[in-house]
Specification:
CATH class of the largest domain: Alpha Beta
Distance between the termini: 22 Å
CATH architecture of the largest domain: 4-Layer Sandwich
Strand content: 25-35%
Helix content: 10-25%
Number of strands: 22
């Protein structure tokens, strides 16, 4: 609820019943008006352009009506009501000087010792609350397991169907990770893989990866996940200048291992939003191309920071490990969480299938579920 409102031609100042005050510009209020001539009923899309708003827009009246704000704009003579809770949610009159390298408030970073978020296949397919919890874990922690699933090939596509769509690449709608011990072809080896994000040479990168286990009778081969955001936080704590170098200059990544394919990207290893929020990690030694965008006098320091980030990522205290059983899968936010595999040997086989999807579908599904069942989301 609002307690009071004052205004001049260009600014409206409101006081909430909590005693908090907030200011809103006339142009901002008019652009975000909630009336049906400004916003389409139903989908909420804006029906006007910035050019439709008079350049001399001003406020001629602002008053409280049933706890909400009613504003009249000139020269249009248009009156619009703004709910108090909507104004509180969208206020921007606050200190915007936030620390560089911070994570979003709904993200929790982690290291070894965290219990891997997990859900049951049948539960997430039958119970909306279980599904919402699984999606929320991916959003908060960047990864989650799914257990008790079928062992038929292509079952991973049903995982993507829970929230969105498979993102097809040059590898197809999905790819095989089928490696047999004592192979006849060295392509099918049990070598370990350093923690990495997938496909950093794409622009944009696939934002989610699903790995689904169909067979796993080999010794070893545990999966490991590492929180790249936590690694970046540690680098920022230990070496803020090095953090700034990895965030401030683009790395280069490349893949040209197949005929007719040459993928390249130019993006930083640590990606920040313009206001300093940590939004992405790209780390993959196998796909790194020569770095040519770092000034000569900064290159050695850049490589020192790169080495330090790698050492943090390789620290066993950073990783959460688990061995997938047939019918189990895990999903990772590929813009944040790195994944690795321990080497394995002995008798047996290991067969996984993998695919990519996009995080916007998962976040959209989660947000829609929370809006439709807000009491269950609390």
């Amino acid at each position: 609820m609002l307690r009071s409102a004052t205004h001049d031609a260009s600014v409206v100042t409101v006081e909430f019943d909590t005693g908090t005050k907030a200011r809103f510009h006339a142009i901002w209020l008019r652009d975000n008006a909630l009336d049906p001539e400004t916003r389409a009923p139903g989908n909420g899309q804006r029906l006007i352009t910035i050019g439709d708003i008079p350049s001399d827009i001003s406020v001629s009246a602002a008053e409280i009506s049933n706890g909400d704000l009613t504003v009249t704009f000139q020269p249009e003579g248009k009156t619009v009501t703004f709910p108090a809770d909507w104004l509180a949610e969208h206020g921007y009159d606050r200190d915007q000087n936030r620390p560089m390298g911070r994570t979003a408030p709904d993200i929790t970073t982690w290291g070894r010792g965290i219990d891997a978020p997990s859900a049951d296949w049948d539960e997430v397919h039958a119970n909306p609350s279980a599904k919402r919890g699984w999606l929320a874990a991916v959003a908060e922690y960047g990864f989650a397991k799914l257990t008790g699933g079928p062992t038929e090939p292509e079952s991973l596509l049903k995982v993507a169907d829970l929230f969105g769509y498979v993102r097809e690449t040059n590898y197809g709608p999905y790819f095989e990770v089928r490696t047999e011990v004592n192979p006849t072809n060295l392509a099918y080896t049990g070598l370990g893989l350093q923690a990495h994000t997938d496909n950093p040479y794409r622009d944009p990168v696939p934002t989610l990866q699903i790995l689904y286990c169909l067979e796993n009778s080999a010794e070893g081969g545990d999966s490991i996940v590492v929180d790249g955001f936590r690694a970046a936080e540690k680098l920022h704590e230990q070496n803020p200048e090095g953090f700034a170098l990895l965030a401030g200059y683009p790395a280069r990544f490349e893949y040209k291992g197949s005929d007719g394919i040459c993928l390249r990207s130019r993006r930083p290893m640590i990606e920040l939003s313009p206001d300093g929020e940590l939004v992405g990690i790209r780390f993959n030694n196998r796909s790194s191309a020569p770095f040519v965008d770092v000034p000569f006098d900064q290159m050695e320091a850049y490589y020192a920071a790169y080495r330090q980030l790698g050492e943090i990522i390789d620290d066993p205290a950073m990783g959460v490990s688990f061995k997938l059983e047939p019918g189990e899968s895990f999903i990772v936010d590929n813009t944040r969480v790195l994944h690795a595999r321990l080497g394995y040997s002995g008798a047996g086989s290991r067969w996984l299938q993998g695919c990519y999807a996009d995080k916007d579908g998962l976040l959209s599904t989660l947000a829609a579920m929370e809006m439709s069942q807000p009491e269950a989301a609390e």
